[in-house]
Amino acid sequence: MGVPFIAGNWKMNKTIREAVDFTNQLRNLIAELDDREVVIAPPFTALYPVAEALKGSNIHLSAQNLSDKAEGAYTGEVSARMLVDAGCRYVIIGHSERRNLFGEKDAVINAKIKIALASGLKPIFCVGETLEEREEDSTFSVIERQIKEGLNNLNRDDIRRLVIAYEPVWAIGTGKTATPEQAQEIHAFIRHLMDATYGEHMAGDIPIIYGGSVNPKNISVLMAERDINGVLVGGASLDIDSFIQIIKF
Ligand code: PEP
Q1: Which residues constitute the domain of residue 165?
Q2: Where residue 84 sits, what CATH number does that domain have?
Q3: 172 pocket-lining for ligand 1 (C-beta < 6 Å)
Q4: I need a surface site. Which of 78, 150, 180, 224 has the fewest CB within 10 A?
Q5: Considering its fold, how many domains does the chain have in total?
C-alpha cells in the first residue's frame, strides 16, 4: 500500500478567497512533506482558483460531486470533463449526504463512477451504513450492496483507480467516531470483498480510507489499524491547524 491518503471535504463552505487563502497556507505548511497523498475538495466555485493556487505543489484537487451525464441540457449540473478542465484529479462519489439528502441511488452512483473514470478522474467512492442499519445488524449486507451495485460492470483496471471511503453515516458530522476496531472490521471486510470479487491481491492496490468525525485526537489510533489507509475529513479539514495536525499525525 502507498502513502497515507488524507482528503479534506469542505462541503458547502468557503468563498473563493477563503479557499485560496487556506490553500496557500496549506501548501506552505506541508511543502516538505512527501510521504502523504493530500487532497482537498473545495466547492465547485473555488475549484479552478484553488487549482491555480496548487500549481507546482504535491497537493491534489478533488470535486465533491459530478453529473452522471456527459453534457447537454442539464441545468445546474457539472460534468466530469468540466472538472478535469478545472484541474481536478479526484471526485467524491456516493457521499452519504448525496445519498440521503439528494436521493442518489446506487445506480446513479454507478453511472457517476463510470463517467468519472472514462474522463480520467479517480473516484473517491463512499459507502457506509446508517445507525438504524447498524442496529439491525445489516452493516455488512448494506456495504456489500453499495459496493456491488456502485461498482457494477467495472473491470479490474477501473477498480485499480478507485479510492474507497468507509464512512458510517452515524459518525459523519456527529462527533461520534467509529472505534478503531469497528472501522478496521469493516475495512477488512471491504478488502476481502474486493479480493473475492475482482481477484486476489486486487484490494492491496486500492486505498481504503475512513471518514466520520476524524480529528487531531483520533487520527493516530485510526491510522494504526492495518486496513485503514487514510482518512476523509469533513469538519476538521476546514480549519488549517486541525487539518495540518491530521495530515502530520
Ligand atoms: C465527511 O463528510 O466525509 C465527513 C467525514 O465529515 P466529518 O469529518 O465532519 O464527520
Answers
A1: 5-247
A2: 3.20.20.70
A3: yes
A4: 224
A5: 1
